[in-house]
Amino acid sequence: MSFVTYTNKVNIGVLGTGDVGKQLSKAFLTEGNPTMIGTRDVNKAEVVAFKTANPAISIGTFEETVKFADIVVLAVGGAIAQELVKSLASVLSGKVVIDAVNPITPGVPPKKFALQYFTEKNSSLMELLIEAAPEAHFVKAFNSVGNGLMYKPQLSERASMIVCGDSDEAKKSVQPLIEAFGWDFFDVGASTLAGPVEALCPLWCAIAFKTGKFNDFAFKIVTK
Amino acid sequence: MSFVTYTNKVNIGVLGTGDVGKQLSKAFLTEGNPTMIGTRDVNKAEVVAFKTANPAISIGTFEETVKFADIVVLAVGGAIAQELVKSLASVLSGKVVIDAVNPITPGVPPKKFALQYFTEKNSSLMELLIEAAPEAHFVKAFNSVGNGLMYKPQLSERASMIVCGDSDEAKKSVQPLIEAFGWDFFDVGASTLAGPVEALCPLWCAIAFKTGKFNDFAFKIVTK
């Protein structure tokens, strides 16, 4: 396979039409990338409304969207991510996948503002996704802040997008894209770090739930 | 009980004579607080050497140290913390305890730089400690950076000490102390957030292990 080098804009395929999928697909389009958003049902009223409001974004099935994409963005619910990725494993083979998903247990409310996860100790959703599609190149990113902050966050200073993944080339291929979105790119290492990276989401959400402010906080790695 | 209000310097009792215990006890003494460090064996060569090098720091048993302290600092190994706290539950009753400990599984090496934890999903060592001494007031702090950064870290900007705990008064009582150590105090909420706060340690350690730099990184919450 060849990794994206950004001599040209790349095709982005966003899987999932929730708030994160909508926000990221609009952002990628704004940055000049041909963008397709993938959904289980292209005729769903919500999807049709989104297409009407954003005519330059293509709509496709999940499989069409993966095939279209140079870089796939996974933005479905955590609970269905593993099964979906498994079903798409053959088309995902060799693709770079930005994994923006967190393992939030459906139907279980936060416990004093703490989101409850379904992942076991020393594991992560990202590692389950790698098992489900071992030939895709996952990069965990955009999982640690709310969707309102993902693109050009308006904060007092530049924050860090904390990423991890097993392919250095895949991480390199998404770095310029994350930087273009207004973030410092901070690679903490392999997919074994995905558990701690996914734990940033409940931390961020606790702050947002507690303060009622969903666009006001992000993490930064301060350096020497 | 009455919480500390900092009209006067308070007695600090540090449990544990490892790197974190030594570092924090010296820092509290530097800040003008009468400080005792607690150990299982006051005659251990390493403890005697520390006492010789730091004559102004008192040495005591764990129990003596808790009794001496207005604020207790727990800095023992994660694997023994629960049992120790349980054995001290009666003397810890009503005390504010800064919990600087992480649930690192002894004897299990990091997995591609990722520390392995013994805590179950949606749980934390802090919550186990609360079960072990339900009448103590735990505040999670100092667990997310290496000991070389805990006191007046030399970084490009002020970083955030991310804390949590169930007693707002206990958190308030340690806030000035953490601020005096050179940190922004950032309270994320209840002890249900301790798992995500404890996950900051493997994240920090992965950066330190990967770069070989143990005094160069800390977390900050960037705001609007």
TrEMBL record, chains A, B:
The keyword Isomerase does not apply. It comes from the Eukaryota. Residues 12-103 form the Pyrroline-5-carboxylate reductase catalytic N-terminal domain. SUPFAM superfamilies: NAD(P)-binding Rossmann-fold domains. Keywords: Oxidoreductase. One of its GO terms (molecular function) is oxidoreductase activity. Gene3D superfamilies: NAD(P)-binding Rossmann-like Domain (3.40.50.720). This is NADP oxidoreductase.
